Amino acid sequence: MKEPADTRILAEIWEVIGERAQNPRPDSYTTRLLTDKKGIDKVLEKVGEESTEFILAVKNGVDERTVEEAADLLFHLLVAIRAAGLELSDVMQELEHRKK
């Protein structure tokens, strides 16, 4: 079994998402998601789209696409969490609570 990748990247991405929310940059994809005229619906559409693409990649047994789509889904999920006004730590605490 492979060693897990360094999970600090999630914290780093979360920091960037927060930075883009606090200091919007017009050239930033994250900023565009967070400030779209559709509001939170825009990022939720992306979560749905990426979820479908992930499911198809897994179903088709294409490992490289599965990894790519999982990364896309995780990113958009993080943006949606931020757009909902929640913190990643809230989700992490819930995961910790569920750990048996």
State the end-to-end CA separation: 22 Å
CATH architecture: Orthogonal Bundle
Give the % helix: over 70%
Largest sheet: none
Shape: globular
Radius of gyration over alpha carbons? 15 Å
Q: What is the succession of H and E elements?
A: HHHHH
Q: Strand content of the residues, in percent?
A: under 5%
Estimate the mean pLDDT confidence: 94
- Overall structural domain count: 1
The count of DSSP E runs of length 2 or more, i.e. the number of strands, is: 0
Low-confidence spans: none
If helices are DSSP runs of H or I spanning 4 or more residues, what is the number of helices? 5
Computed structural class:
mainly alpha
The CATH class turns out to be Mainly Alpha
